[in-house]
Amino acid sequence: MGLLVQVFKWDQRWRLLQRCDLVLRRTIKKQAVHPTKLAEVGRLMEARDDRYETGQLFLHRIFGYRGVILFPWTARVYDRDLHNPSKVNATATTPTPSQQQRTKEASIRVKASTSTPPEANTADATTSTAYLTNAPGVTETTGNVEAATQVDPKEVKGKVQTFYQVLIDTRDCPHIRAQTEAVTFLGNQDSNRSLYAIPGLDYVSHEDIMPYSSSEKSPLQHELFDKFLTHAPDADPPFVGQDTLKAWQEKNHPWLDMSDVHKETTENVRITVIPFYMGCRETPASSVYWWRYCIRLENLGKASVQLRERHWRIFSLSGTLETVRGRGVVGQEPILSPRLPAFQYSSHVSLQAPSGHMWGTFRLEREDGYSFDCKIPPFSLESKPDDLGPSTSVTPTTHGHDAGDGKRDDRD
């Protein structure tokens, strides 16, 4: 009897080994179909403290994609962590002497106005609405402007920093945890509902640039690369901007322009917001002002967190305050892990007033089930006096969307 039991056990082990062999062969076969390959893209260069030039190739420090710099922007960064002593040690980095010398400081007082503009009456203040396009979830609108004072009125100093308008290599777009159609603009003046996006454009801070060089004449795959840049072997970098790039920048400056960047960290999760004014659309009943805003969530800690909910407050100069709640962002509930710490997306908001404020929270959940609210730093929505329509003569494959049909992705 003991011998039979022993034989039975050996038979079970043999079957188990056969299954392991089958699993191993399937795994090898799967890897053979989709092998992981390493390809040399160029030679990594030493990072610079001073500004990079047009045509500089780079790798994104956070998202890892290949890109090329088109032109720089000068932005004022308002980091609320610098005014909270408990956060400075965890999130702030010590600047180099050259950075300290270059950095200029200014101050801004972030607060919501609770007064009604002179031209508005009580009826306008209660009937005007501020709304977010394509926002799933519960939306509440109220005329209680006193709640808008929840925006922290303390003084926040801003530091001038360099950001870059860049092109993303289309081969890397499917692998980026960021929207590759983040740069959007309004359509022609005769269309009140059109919203267009140019794929493969992004804004990158100076500290996220990892420069590299390449001997290839066309090292980046993007339809605008050859239209904007030309190969110049004797130049440094060896790609220089064409006249089409300069003309495109000048004509589209109003909706490309970035001026303010807002940052705040809660429990090792940093939120960065960059708002952009897109323009005004006149209707027979009213004027509608549009903005887009780009948001990055970055996990600075060691524990993974997942975004579960969003809670927005939108205050309009017309006197309305709106609350928007919903699951996730753009239809996703991204996980921010030490291996993939960041997620970036963009969305849009429109007001029936020339200015307003936005702020809110993201509800995040850790692996152990602990949930907390991560603050979204308050930021202003300011219009500009010159509302120039964008020119898209060099972007024939821009994608159009209906800005008011509530079906474009799952934007908040």
Automatic annotation (TrEMBL):
GO CC entries: mitochondrial nucleoid; nucleus
InterPro entries according to UniProt: ApaG_domain, ApaG_sf, Hemimethylated_DNA-bd_dom
SMART domains, alphabetized: YccV-like
Domain ApaG, first and last residues per copy: 263-388
Protein name stated in the entry: Polymerase delta-interacting protein 2
Originating organism: Drosophila kikkawai
Ranges annotated as biased composition (Polar residues): 112-130
Residue span of region Disordered: 85-130, 380-412
GO molecular function, one term: DNA binding
One Pfam assignment: DUF525
Secretion signal, residue range per the UniProt entry: none
Any one biological process term the GO annotation gives: error-free translesion synthesis
